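Board notes, transcribed. Complex of a protein with adenosine-5'-triphosphate.
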Amino acid sequence: MTTTTETGTTATATGATVLDASGVTMRFGGLTAVRDVNLTVREGEIVGLIGPNGAGKTTFFNCLTGLYVPTEGQVSYKGTVLPPKPHLVTQAGIARTFQNIRLFSNMTVLENVLVGRHTRTKEGLWSALLRGPGFKRAEAASRDRAMELLEFVGLANKAEHLARNLPYGEQRKLEIARALASDPGLLLLDEPTAGMNQAETRTTEELVFAIRDRGIAVLVIEHDMKFIFKLCDRVAVLVQGEKLVEGTAEVVQGDERVVAAYLGTPYEDAPGAAELAEVEAAEAHAADEAASEAEAEAEAAEDADEDTGDDAAEDAGDTPEDAAPAADADSTTEGDSK
Ligand SMILES: Nc1ncnc2c1ncn2[C@@H]1O[C@H](COP(=O)(O)OP(=O)(O)OP(=O)(O)O)[C@@H](O)[C@H]1O
């Protein structure tokens, strides 16, 4: 796999490969959702996966985490090929969050994190039932670790709250804490800022950097381009299941194919080509209207001087036609707001 790193950070250049997805293809009947995708993530890297809706990003994540068995290709973690079983993938060291939050809503915040810890606890069923000293020690250690993670994501003061009572942004953070509870070497985040306001998004940005600083590599799917380009050492772009481009934020943002396929769509705080074209067209239309109104007024004044009734009737007949574009514009606005 080739990786464009002309302006990449030093962390990306030297880290050992953590994830190596090679030739991953996923077909659903006649539909090829992911086609021959290669992607690596190295130690210390934050890698972004972007692409239009339906490009195959989540399907690719599902192939990495064993939820789907890829039709072709294989996925390795730290040099070992992963079996396509979610619990074995988690045990190996890959954790994930989901696009649609999947918490145990009737459990407390702390209990949710403790559930995420189960792949790392060795105590068996008998030990749990007998509640012997080994079990109690393990339970206390898990609790300490879970509280430490809640502290890390900023939810320690809500440990005893029911997960369902947390605001949306905090539920997303809890999902991250739960994923971290399995002590992963690689964390996959599927749209971690979806539904967040700007302040929450900034906090999530800091959280992802802090996760990387703990030695955990991150692969993140996100539609918020500001977030992605600020955060990621490297970005891969999927379009119709295929990897179109991969490189640093600068390389990806400057790639004409990406702009055409994806970034032309307006995104938060940055008007895209379509928005700018719309504004320019509206301005041009307004200027044309003003010019023709001025022309019509001048003609009407001339006609009045010459006192020719026929011409005055023609001008009156023009008026509804001139008004037609405005009526069209109104109906478009109504259509958009539905
Ligand atoms: N289980 C499935 N069975 C059949 N088709 C599927 C399945 N999962 C995904 N697809 C199809 O695969 C394609 C890729 O979907 P996917 O959800 O991976 O895209 P995405 O890039 O994650 O989109 P979004 O940004 O909207 O989440 C879509 O056409 C989708 O309908």
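The two ends are 45 Å apart (CA to CA). The beta strands are 17-28, 31-42, 46-50, 72-77, 80-81, 94-96, 186-190, 217-221, 234-239, 242-247.
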